[in-house]
Input
Amino acid sequence: MNILVVGSGGREHAIAKTLANSPVTKHVFCAKGNPRMVQDGIELVDISEIDGESLVQFAKEQQIDWTFIGPELPLFHGVSDAFEQAGLRVFSPSKAAAKIEYSKDFAKQLMVKYHVPTAKSATFSSFDLAKDYVLEHGAPIVIKADGLAAGKGVVVAMNTDEALEALSFMLLDGAYANQDDVAKVVIEEYLEGEEFSLFSFVNGEKAYFAGISQDHKRAYDHDLGPNTGGMGAYSPVPQFSQEVIDECMAQVVYPIIKGMKQEGCAYKGVLYAGLMMTKGGVKVIEFNARFGDPETQVVLQRLNSDLATIIDDILQDKEPVIEWKQNSITLGVVVAAKGYPSQYEKGFSLGKLTPRDSEQVQLFAAGVNGNQGEYIANGGRLFLVSATEETAHKAQKVVYDYLQEHTIEGTFYRHDIGYHVVNWEKKYSE
Output
């Protein structure tokens, strides 16, 4: 098969690399991709990820069997729809279905209507009304932008001043206007518990478990600092049993995809459910219309089955065989440019970014330029280093030993990725 992956980050690197390693694939292309992908046999395509017309033309010329769209921006711009209209297979949701990610208000309305457990909330486009709501309910409270925000339009305000500052930024400054060019926010009750991400391969009303992970959103150690796109992740999440996974599929995934079909926006592709285990059970924090980043980089290493075959089977309405590695855990740490997620430097050297086979690590690039001789920083999150070991503690040691031995000036990373599961392992072994 010839496969096209759309996107350029670490998530797309992991997807394209996994597909390239499949025995059933001939060529894997990535548009635009990043230069580090070439080392893994991925062919780069110089086409913008939101240029649906050019991507469709390329797919026709190269006889692409099917396309996988990684990030949310091309979904918002209807690239998946362009492929469908051209009669080409694509394993990604339509613009209408992807609204479950880029409109928090739409997602909330769906969850309420189809009885999917989630936090209590209210939606506002008026700053004054939103302010009154915050002052009435107090903090901690969660403020979410209703619109494209690249995973960063959420503020967990621990006091009212933080909440009002977020409202001002989102509503008065219009930082994240939605598809109707209207600034709107969803204000949610603050939930306490442990977060995790659950992924599903979806085709209409059929859903198949596609992995579980836990990522770390805060920029600095001990979950301090601003929210980021994610500073590291691990998979699986042994704190949560198979019973919990089954409960999530039954109470969250199946009702929401059934509801979406009834609403006329049937879902196809990977569905991300951001969940929290509260004292009252599992509740949905958010949905994304794609794999997560950096969760994808660790989740896909857990697959024993062939990803290309899984997706091809689903596209043909066949029952896929999906098996996972047992008795091991994969943990990954993101290396970012200093200053991320705010102002950060670009243009400095990252070296060759080529782990030796003996170093037991995998490397997935994101914000990089250059070539195999020397890669250059070109983004906030630069790359992720991961390892798979019997325990999270061992995987942590392999990754952090590598990072300490390969320091890069101008970068930083968290030193406590996976602390939840390491603490759980200690408790479990006692």
About this structure: The chain has a mean pLDDT of 94. The first strand starts at residue 2 and ends at 7.
